[in-house]
Amino acid sequence: MSECTLKKVTEHSPEEIERVKEWINTEDYKEKNFDRKALVVNPAHACQPLGAQMVATAFEGSLPFVHGSQGCASYFRSTFSRHYREPAAATCDAMTEDGAVFGGQNNLFEGLENAYALYKPKMMPVYTTCMPEVIGDDLTAFIRNAKLQGHIPEELPTPYANTPSFNGTHIHGYDSMMLAILKYLTEGQKVEGKCTGKLNLIPGFDGNTGNTREYKRLLEAMDIPYTVMADTSEVFDTPCDGTYKLYAGGTKLEDAAESINGKATISLQKYSTLTTMKWIGKEYSGAIETMPMPFGVKKTDEFLMKLSEMFGKPIPEKLKEERGLAVDAMTDAHQYLHGKKFAVVGDPDYLIGIVSFLLEMGAIPHHVLCSRATKKFSKEMQALLDSSPFGQGCTVYINKDLWHMRSLLVTDPVDGIIGDTHAKWAARDAKIPLFRIGFPIIDRVNLHRSPVIGYQGAINILTMIANKFLDIKDETCEDQWFEMMR
Ligand code: SF4
């Protein structure tokens, strides 16, 4: 082997490296960091089509189909696989340079034909990556042509959504795909005067399968028949029994089609279902509500009371008892959270829920950061903070990233940060614990199985946070303060 010397592009002395390391922890650097306009560093959001895929995969027999680049499709699949530690089936028509020049219609024809022949799906929802969106591929015409030319059967459901990542995030992709699927499946299904008696529950973009299971458990405890749309719980959390199921779980297509005649529809994430709920409000029968995710006791109470009102069912004793257990757990743990300062990063709906829980515990949300949000979200968050004495010193940052968050943590410290795995670098630099709630969580196991909503979720969150603070105390205290009892 020949010897060669690599010449560094830019040489820096150890002193210079030390100087910069210290400088990026200063107010001076923070100001420059917040002046940043063109560059995003470690954003706390994912691509639009990834959100579309979460919906597309969560219907029975549904094969998500990516119209666009193979690399993008691999990123969506690997992110889901890393988060859930499960296979994440999806296919792609792998557009390359020729597709970018001549359009992706031929790729789509071949891709749809092969995918249908090989995997026999009941539905193939199609969504796009940036490349076909930049060149202006016409999905409506392409899919119609694919059916006219016999590449796929006419009757195969092929809802589709345009999901350009340069114009939105995973929550917008979730919204667009949900709208497309519901429009497609419910077409011609509305019957005046018919009522299925069921609740349609839309959880929104939620990487926590435990949450979906918890929603179902609460509804069963209330004796309310339901359809969860889209139901990821069995798609991304399947039993390990030695067999691979390509189409595990998911919302049944006929249930989704019938949802238009439901007794009521509730979305539990306002910001990830904006256009879907607007359309449902015009087209669906029954009562329509958008509510915040039921984080903590107050919001869980509101959710259950709303169900009780809509369906005329009393809150069962079992759930009242669970509420009491949650209040007891909060009382036991409140001394370890009360007065602690937190930074929180995540999707708008998760942020509203987590901040509400922190305020309930007497904890202090100090920096709240969302990497894609509107002024409406800022106002809603501010109103929530203003409603509690513990929310008074908090600043809400929208359209900022985790490099901004790092500056905040090192110049204006807090006791812990709540967010997804992407926040671990900022947490490490600030020497504070990261409490993993959100999506994706790819450096810890099984957290997606542990609900963070409902009374049980409140117990889970406060247990995780309080015990971590106690661990830190045990690990860092002087010998005379190393106590048996905490
Ligand atoms: S931003 Fe666009 S091109 Fe990049 S991975 Fe996402 S969808 Fe693909």
Question: Features of this protein?
Answer:
Rossmann fold; 19 helices; binds iron/sulfur cluster; about 475 residues; 13 strands; alpha/beta; 4-stranded parallel sheet; 3 domains
**What percentage of amino acids are in beta strands?**
5-15%
Named CATH architecture of the largest domain: 3-Layer(aba) Sandwich
Note the main sheet: 5 strands, parallel
Count of the separate structural domains: 3
Chain-wise SSE layout:
Layout: H1 14-23, H2 27-35, H3 48-56, E1 65-67, H4 70-84, E2 91-92, H5 97-102, H6 105-119, E3 126-128, H7 130-135, H8 139-148, E4 160-161, H9 170-186, E5 199-202, H10 209-221, E6 226-228, H11 253-258, E7 264-267, H12 274-283, E8 287-290, H13 296-311, H14 317-337, E9 341-345, H15 348-360, E10 364-370, H16 375-386, E11 395-398, H17 402-411, E12 416-419, H18 424-430, E13 434-436, H19 454-476
Parallel strand pairs: 1-2, 1-3, 3-4, 5-6, 5-7, 7-8, 9-10, 9-12, 10-11, 12-13
Helix pairs in contact: 2-17, 3-9, 6-8, 9-12, 13-15, 13-19, 14-19, 15-16, 17-18
Provide an overview of this structure:
There is one protein chain. The protein is built from 19 helices and 13 strands. It is an alpha/beta fold and 486 residues long. It has three domains: 137 residues, Rossmann fold, CATH 3.40.50; 118 residues, 3-Layer(aba) Sandwich (Rossmann fold); 161 residues, Rossmann fold, CATH 3.40.50. Strands 11-10-9-12-13 form a five-stranded parallel beta sheet, sandwiched between helices. Strands 2-1-3-4 form a four-stranded parallel beta sheet, sandwiched between helices. Helix 9 runs parallel beside helix 12, helix 14 packs parallel to helix 19 and helix 17 packs parallel to helix 18. It is globular, with a radius of gyration of 24 Å. The model has no long low-confidence stretch (mean pLDDT 97).
